[in-house]
UniProtKB/TrEMBL annotation:
Record-annotated CBS domain positions: 91-148
Gene3D superfamilies: CBS-domain (3.10.580.10)
SMART domains: CBS (SM00116)
Protein name: CBS domain-containing protein
InterPro entries, alphabetized: CBS_dom (IPR000644), CBS_dom_sf (IPR046342), Diverse_CBS-Domain (IPR051257)
UniProt keyword annotations, A-Z: CBS domain
Pfam families: CBS
Length: 148
């Protein structure tokens, strides 16, 4: 693949519209509908702040739904529930991010190392500007390959 592909900037391929976002205080019954049409939802500080503080993925929900015994790690009760609480209660707090000036190579390396398929694209204050998913990168790869 030509170096142009690896050196392309995230800002050129990221999705900027229709990003699934919900505030951390949103009740869980407002979160779940996102996951019927999306694989994830980014969690922000609040209605007035789009600073990314978490993510909820289908995998997070699967972990909750598949727990028949109500236990989590080391036999301790899993305090998360899908019938009460807020987005903050079930979100993953460690969010791996990227910025718009990073390259496809940077994003792919981060995705591979972290075992994830999506990254929020944020500014220096962690405010979400868009997202890049493996699908966006694959689409760019196909476009470049067709030009060869």
């Amino acid at each position: 693949m030509p170096p142009k592909f690896w050196d392309a900037k995230i800002e050129d391929i990221m999705q900027k519209k229709d990003i699934p976002i919900i505030e951390r205080s949103a009740p869980i019954d407002r979160v779940l509908p996102f996951l019927t049409t999306k694989t994830h939802v980014w969690v922000t500080e609040g209605k007035r702040s789009e600073k990314v503080v978490g993510v909820i993925t289908e995998h997070d929900i699967l972990s909750i739904l598949a727990s028949k015994t109500g236990t989590h790690m080391f036999g301790l009760p899993d305090m998360r529930s899908l019938d009460k609480g807020s987005a903050e209660d079930i979100m993953t707090k460690r969010v791996v991010k990227c910025n718009p000036s990073e390259t496809i190579e940077d994003a792919l390396d981060r995705m591979r190392v972290e075992g994830i398929r999506r990254l929020p694209v944020v500014d220096d204050n962690d405010v979400i500007l868009g997202e890049v998913r493996l699908w966006h990168i694959l689409k760019k790869f196909i476009a470049v390959a067709k030009k060869k």
